[in-house]
Amino acid sequence: MKLQVGLALTALTSVALAAYEPAQVYLIRKQSQSNSAPSISRQTTRQILLQRLGANQSGFLREIPDGKDQEEAISYINELGKTTASLFSQTPSSEPAQLVLMIEGLGKKELEDFENSIRSHKRGRTFVVDKPPSASANSYLFEQDLVAAGVKPSGCKLEAAFNPYAPTCWDNNVFVEKYDLKKVGLLFSLTSPSDLDTLVENIPSLFKLANNGDMEAMLVMMPESSRSSSVKQWSSNPILHRRALRDAETVIAEDTPEESTQAVTPGEKLGAQVWAAAPKGHIPACFQSFNSCDTQTNSCSGHGKCVDKYSRGDASEKRADGAAACWVCKCLATEEHNDGKVSKGRKTTHWGGNICQKKDVSVPFFMFAGFTIAFVGVITFTISMLFNVGEEKLPGVIGAGVSRNK
Questions:
Q1: Which domain holds residue 268?
Q2: How many domains is the chain partitioned into structurally?
Q3: pLDDT digit string, tens, across residues 93-131
């Protein structure tokens, strides 16, 4: 009887340990990484994933507890997130393509074999996720959270993930997808367990692309033991997250102006015309063509035009070097009369933002700040001059004609 109880306790302990088997996350990028693999919470891992995809993350700090944990999470996001170009960089540099893959249904041996293939390139796992969420949480993350943040899974087979130049599967240099080794034939799944070998075979290609600065890959390897995990969400507060997204969409809908039916002639200034708001969602840093830029930004919100960022001349000609185009919005100033008609003089408005949707208030700000500084300087100089005059001693000639009483 005691032997049976001991065996039962051993079995329960093994099941409990298997249930808490951590998920392994690998970052393949040009930067070197430390030898240690820290344990990071699922909430921070979710934020790292969203940051690497350039997703909209309004109020992401509410996902992380206050105090030391929040500071640590921000540190991990800065360290493991996507590297952004310097604001004052003189030479334009294209950002590397971002590949994010989640592989579910991995057994212990498959995890070990995959780690050995990574270690053959003198790299190891970047970090682990204790108590990884369940398969339903993974589906919600890819089918709901990412879509709500403006990122859509590619829906392509695994082979397309290793070619960042495939236009049909890569959207704005981003490929994100979830694959399940144990579920064959579904829309977002591997065709067979042998496709894991395809991933292992393409690891050298990923390292080559990463070393050239063309791609960065984030591989999330989920153990089979996490499929029925008790953790049902990657987010710490999914209800709050959905409410914030709904409120943001409501505000955008209320602020959306009505679409104007007035036509614009080629020589007319873009100005006080009412334009439809740009579509909600992620606005990429570069568009591949003029048509995609003009359509997705609604003609730069009616306050600019789409141009090739790195082209020669007036930024409207194609480059002769054959490099990929980078179409962006070039914001223009608009002039408006008091009666609302577009014409020269009276009122000039400058626009900014990635789709020219924000008013540029830098000129009024600097004028106000300059006037304030000048006014304070004049007052200070006046007070200082009066003080210095008052400190001067009276000349002796003033008392020369005064006689003393006898």
A1: 259-359
A2: 2
A3: 578 889 999 999 899 999 999 999 999 888 889 999 988
